[in-house]
Design goal:
Blueprint (H helix, E strand, L loop, with lengths): L5 E6 L20 E2 L3 E2 L2 H9 L4 E5 L5 H7 L13 E5 L14 H6 L2 H7 L3 E6 L2 E3 L3 H10 L4 E7 L9 E5 L5 E6 L8 E10 H10 L8 H11 L4 E5 L4 E3 L3 H10 L27 E2 L4 E3 L2 E2 L4 E2 L2 E3 L2 E2 L4 E2 L4 E3 L2 E2 L4 E2 L4 E3 L1 E3 L4 E2 L4 E2 L19 E3 L4 E2 L4 E2 L4 E3 L11 E2 L4 E3 L4
């Protein structure tokens, strides 16, 4: 029988609804990040850099691009005969077939996959965070303390603590209590949704709680282990960690990459971030163009001026166009004489000539102010914006739009233009 010391289960089925139109056609872990990467590249690279060579990736929502991106795991050196990367979508069984309904339910439905490797330990990861972490150090901590469950936790400001699962520990970092999103938090150590379980402990908890609707780690599995008296410890992490779950946090995390000394460095030799790269020609920056404090992906052609922006691969920016404080994803084309301010423009978008994006005063978004805010203009994948239109702030556009969709050539601040079928 194959025996692996530790295998990883990477939860990548999330819809990421707070990213609005960016995740209308693609799972959140497959969203572009930092020009050439996708969000899932970070936990996958952490696995291979930490010596974890067996990873089950649990997909569900819009999995096509994620599946194509992961393939057989070659970029991460995860194309192994034994172990490697396996994509685990929900599948039809002879009885009670069901979608994954909660984080732990997805893991429960793949008990057979985990059994194959008969691991000592199972590492549970989320596919939608940007960070670098050596899981081997966390495993050493787990073993040293004789833990059955170790939760990676990081200090957060006390006023934000109620948004997280909070762990309360003694002076040896042993967990004495666990509260899911408490109204009055007793600690500021927040669970990062990264767990190491002894396989026996995890298996027992999943089977015991299997009937629980929307079986979840924070709400059901961790409390169950705690009640059973399993030794649980908090592994404190103090590095860079970003949940890019909202448009603003996604925008901020991208912008932090272009700081002179980035807090999150993509260029470290000893901890590389791997991704699937298409063979592209080098980027071209024309004689009259300007690019300042920006990341520009391979195969992009810049004829205009780019400031403080993250430009993906295969992007074309026309002449006399000015792009500031924006994220432009792969294979998008922006015409001549445009102005783009604080925009997030998804993949394969076509923007006509003389288009102004992110202009005028701010106004609250009229349909989803909790998603479209902070003055960002968001344009969904494969959208088309016609020539000579002006678009305000806190706006969203999705679909193939034409002149008639813009009264007097304007989409005012706070307006949403989402064409049916998108």
């Amino acid at each position: 029988m194959i025996k692996k010391e530790m295998i990883a289960m990477l939860l990548a089925g999330g819809q990421g609804s707070r990213l609005g139109v960016l995740t209308a056609k693609v799972a959140k872990p497959a969203v572009s990040f930092g020009g050439k990467y996708r969000i899932i590249d970070f936990p996958l690279s952490n696995c291979i850099n930490s010596g974890v060579d067996t990873v089950g990736v649990l997909t569900q929502y819009q999995p096509l691009r994620l599946n194509t991106h992961i393939g057989i795991g070659i970029p991460w050196d995860l194309d192994r005969n034994i172990g490697g990367v396996t994509v685990l979508p929900p599948y039809e069984k002879s009885t009670n077939t069901e979608w994954y309904t909660g984080t732990a339910n997805a893991i429960y439905q793949n008990i057979d996959y985990m059994e194959t490797y008969n691991p000592e330990y199972v590492l549970i990861l989320s596919g939608d965070h940007i960070y670098k972490m050596d899981y081997e150090v966390m495993l050493d901590f787990h073993k040293k303390n004789g833990a059955e469950v170790t939760i990676a936790a990081m200090p957060v400001p006390m006023e934000e603590a109620k948004r997280f699962g909070i762990v309360i520990t003694d002076e040896n970092r042993k967990i004495v209590d666990f509260e899911e999103k408490p109204e009055n938090p007793r600690s500021n150590l927040a669970s990062m949704g990264i767990y190491i379980f002894n396989w026996k402990t995890l298996r027992e908890a999943l089977i015991a709680k299997a009937e629980q609707p929307a079986l979840d780690f924070g709400k059901h599995v961790i409390p169950y282990c705690h009640e059973k008296g399993a030794p649980m410890y908090a592994y404190e992490f103090n590095g860079y960690w970003k949940d890019v779950g909202t448009l603003n946090s996604y925008w901020e995390a991208n912008m932090e990459l272009i700081d002179i000394v980035p807090e999150f460095n993509l260029y470290e030799e000893y901890w590389k971030i791997y991704t699937k790269s298409n063979q592209l020609s080098p980027q071209y920056i024309s004689g009259e163009s300007v690019a300042e404090r920006s990341l520009i992906g391979e195969g992009s052609e810049i004829y205009g001026r780019v400031y403080n922006s993250v430009i993906g691969c295969g992007v074309k920016i026309g002449k006399d166009t000015v792009v500031r404080d924006s994220i432009i994803m792969n294979d998008t084309v922006i015409g001549d004489g445009c102005e783009v301010n604080k925009g997030i423009i998804a993949e394969n978008v076509v923007i006509g000539n003389r288009v102004k994006l992110g202009v005028g005063d701010e106004a609250e978004n009229d349909t989803m102010p909790h998603i479209y805010n902070h003055g960002i203009t968001t344009i969904g994948e494969r959208s088309v914006v016609p020539d000579d239109v002006s678009v305000g702030k806190n706006t969203v556009i999705a679909g193939v739009t034409d002149k008639e969709d813009y009264p007097n050539g304007v989409l005012a601040s706070g307006k949403s233009l989402i064409k049916a079928g998108d």
